[in-house]
Amino acid sequence: MSVFDPATRRHVDKQMEDLAREFRGVFSRETVERFVNESLEGLRSARFGDFVPVLVHRFARERLRALGQAEGTIVKEVPEVLFVCVQNAGRSQMAAGLMDQRAQGKVHVRSAGSDPVEEINPAVVEAMAELGIDLHEEFPKPLTDEVVRAADAVVTMGCGDACPLYPGKRYLDWELADPAGQDLPAVRAIRDEIDGRVQALLAELVPDES
User: Domain 78-210 in CATH: superfamily?
Assistant: First the structure.
């Protein structure tokens, strides 16, 4: 933890206390502390400066909720979908944003990367903004075991066998071009192909959306 200045560490510790209160009776304080510290390390390479405590809180909270869902201590209210690509900077972020917009709360969405990078592809952010989807507050996140375990459907996009496999879970592999290094028109085309697949998956998960 030495790479983080004392002020950042204090803010992260406060976030840990907040999470310990939120998950009291579900997880021990030691579990919450471990997840916060792991999340802090996992996001070490991301470019978000002063926002470290806020994003660590968001990431750790999602991981704890996923763990609770996987273990049955937190009830799933809607289907859970996980989108995974290599960098979590393009395809999986677009898929998650599109599913979130299309589902209107009827599906909960997570995304992750097998080898996440520092920031989301700017062309991806621009292409998604054209559809009214703001990715400025999103960030690349590492793939963790509990988010896979909690998912009802896991959609992989170019990350090979990096995703853990669990019996009885639904896995989909979408073959899509990588938007990394592509110009905006090419990214738009990838976005639109993802959107079509997202809408088809949503119709299966929530039939009344079809």
Answer: Response regulator (3.40.50.2300)
